[in-house]
């Protein structure tokens, strides 16, 4: 069995690794290997100075803690650089991506911006020639063997590396309220059949089985893609994105049917809640389960003060045990920014062991680096770090890695209609029509 979908790109990998492999030494200076264009003061101090604009969608509860910790660390290391935290609220970049697009089109790029590794980076900004390669930074920082090859693939195109991954989030996680499961003597479901049995029992007991907050439609797409992963399995799910498996595969329709059946078990006000509001239902014991990426863990622990394993538990979503839906947030260097050295000095901190270990324990994600200090992570984090090593990896559609933004926008629209109209045929027709 092909373990990882990235195997298709091995040839590219060899090229990339070759480019970054030589002459690297970890934790040396933050200076790039090429001669930077420096101002007089930079020449004097060896440091870049100026303002750094960091653009993301990490604002508010459950989102910003990791970023703020990273900024604090950066400011300690670079007091001469002023940080402008230009975050635009809205889960999964609902609003930020639109703002970014108009800025990029208007030749007004932020200093650096959050972008998912995979299609979102490569098919949009890299393909349009709007990102500078970072091979020199990877070389200067000695990162060639510090990130998993699969992640380097996701941030590379045509032999160049275009961004630095700050984390790895897992998308296919079923969160549950431990007290509710204990009280009703229920086992956490691992298959769809078990899921519906548990959901029936909960509903009979007057508990909302599944929390959903799809005011921003991506949350429904997120749930749907985990179902798709469950019906197809990692190999064939991955082949959807290379075109080897079509949206006309019967397991895609099966996923649509399961998804619609799940909606019979969600909170009635799902369309007026966002992801945090849905997670809150589980935290407060008003719903038993929720399917969300592990930024929900950051929210449970840091914002709602829940105890890992005691107040909430987790499992792979039904049918996806042994697979890992990968979401990676990355930051790069847009072409034409005023002070590229300032941006690179931030990327150097973001990609360092210290930077990743400041960010990820708060964000709920695991470090993108292979050499993180695991003692800084809670039980969920440590388990997930291990799972990532052995699991089959699958790229997330809802979070930009699997397919281009155009397709994702169409799927988000189609799913929004699907949730209200519940018309399986017309939803599957849209998927077939739009499949990249
Ligand atoms: C994802 C992103 C995560 C988290 C989430 C909710 O797209 O990768 O870091 O922010 O959206 O907004």
In short:
The protein contains 18 helices and 15 strands. With about 425 residues, the chain is an alpha/beta fold.
Question: How does this structure look, described?
Answer:
This protein is of the alpha/beta class and 436 residues long. The strands form 4 sheets. Strands 2-1-3-13-6 form a 5-stranded mixed sheet, sandwiched between helices. A 4-stranded mixed sheet has the order 14-7-12-15, with helices on both faces. The two termini are 25 Å apart. It has 18 helices and 15 strands. Mean pLDDT is 91; it is low at 1-46. It folds into 2 domains: 2-168 and 328-389, Periplasmic binding protein-like II (D-Maltodextrin-Binding Protein, domain 2); 170-325 and 398-434, D-Maltodextrin-Binding Protein, domain 2 (3-Layer(aba) Sandwich), CATH 3.40.190. The protein binds beta-D-galactopyranose (GAL). Beta-D-galactopyranose (GAL) is lined by residues 57-58, 63, 91-93, 169, 293, 295, 327, 329, 399.
Number of DSSP helical runs: 18
What's the total number of strands? 15
Q: Which small-molecule ligands are present, each listed once? A: beta-D-galactopyranose
Distance between the ends:
25 Å
Percent of residues in β-strands: 5-15%
Mean pLDDT over the residues: 91
Radius of gyration computed on alpha carbons? 21 Å
Low-confidence runs = 1-46
CATH topology label of the largest domain: D-Maltodextrin-Binding Protein, domain 2
Give the spatial strand order of the biggest sheet: 2-1-3-13-6
Given the C-alpha coordinates, what overall shape results? globular
**Structural class based on helices, strands and sheet pairing:** alpha/beta
Q: How much helix, percentage-wise, in residues?
A: 40-55%
Domains, number = 2
CATH architecture label of the largest domain: 3-Layer(aba) Sandwich
CATH class category label of the largest domain? Alpha Beta
Q: Summarize the biggest pleated sheet.
A: 5 strands, mixed
Q: For the record, what is the CATH homologous superfamily label of the largest domain?
A: Periplasmic binding protein-like II
């Amino acid at each position: 069995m092909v373990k990882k979908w990235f195997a298709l790109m091995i040839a590219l990998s060899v090229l990339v690794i070759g480019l970054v492999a030589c002459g690297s030494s970890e934790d040396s200076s933050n200076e790039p290997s090429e001669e930077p264009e420096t101002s007089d003061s930079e020449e004097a101090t060896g440091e870049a100075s100026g303002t750094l604009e960091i653009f993301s969608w990490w604002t508010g509860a459950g989102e910003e803690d990791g970023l703020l910790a990273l900024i604090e660390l950066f400011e300690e290391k670079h007091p001469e650089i002023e940080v402008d935290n230009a975050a635009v609220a809205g889960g999964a970049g609902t609003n930020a991506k639109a703002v970014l697009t108009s800025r990029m089109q208007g030749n007004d790029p932020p200093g650096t911006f959050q972008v998912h590794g995979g299609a979102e980076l490569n098919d949009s900004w890299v393909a349009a020639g709007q990102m500078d390669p970072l091979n020199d930074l990877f070389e200067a920082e000695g990162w060639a063997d510090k990130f998993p090859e699969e992640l380097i693939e996701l941030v590379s195109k045509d032999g160049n590396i275009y961004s630095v991954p700050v984390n790895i989030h897992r998308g296919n996680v079923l969160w549950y309220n431990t007290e509710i499961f204990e009280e009703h003597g229920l086992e956490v479901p691992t298959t769809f059949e078990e899921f519906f049995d548990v959901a029936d029992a909960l509903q009979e007991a007057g508990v909302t089985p599944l929390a959903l907050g799809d005011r921003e439609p991506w949350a429904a797409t997120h749930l749907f893609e985990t179902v798709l992963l469950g019906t197809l399995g990692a190999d064939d799910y991955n082949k959807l994105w290379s075109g080897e498996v079509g949206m006309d595969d019967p397991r895609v329709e099966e996923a649509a049917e399961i998804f619609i059946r799940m909606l019979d078990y969600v909170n009635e006000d799902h369309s007026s809640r966002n992801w945090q509001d849905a997670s809150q239902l589980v935290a407060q014991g008003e719903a038993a389960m929720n399917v969300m990426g592990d930024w929900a863990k950051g929210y449970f622990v840091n914002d709602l003060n829940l105890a890992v394993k005691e107040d909430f538990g987790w499992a792979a979503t039904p049918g996806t045990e042994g697979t890992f839906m990968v979401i990676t947030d990355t930051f790069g260097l847009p072409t034409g920014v005023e002070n590229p050295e300032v941006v690179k000095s931030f990327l150097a901190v973001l990609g360092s062991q210290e930077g990743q270990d400041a960010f990820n324990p708060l964000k709920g994600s695991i470090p993108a680096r292979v050499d993180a200090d695991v003692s800084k992570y809670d039980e969920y984090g440590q388990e997930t770090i291990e799972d990532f090593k052995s699991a089959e990896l699958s790229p997330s559609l809802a979070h930009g890695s699997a397919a281009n933004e155009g397709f994702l926008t169409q799927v988000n629209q189609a799913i929004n209609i699907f949730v209200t109209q519940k018309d399986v045929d017309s939803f599957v027709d849209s998927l077939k029509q739009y499949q990249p």
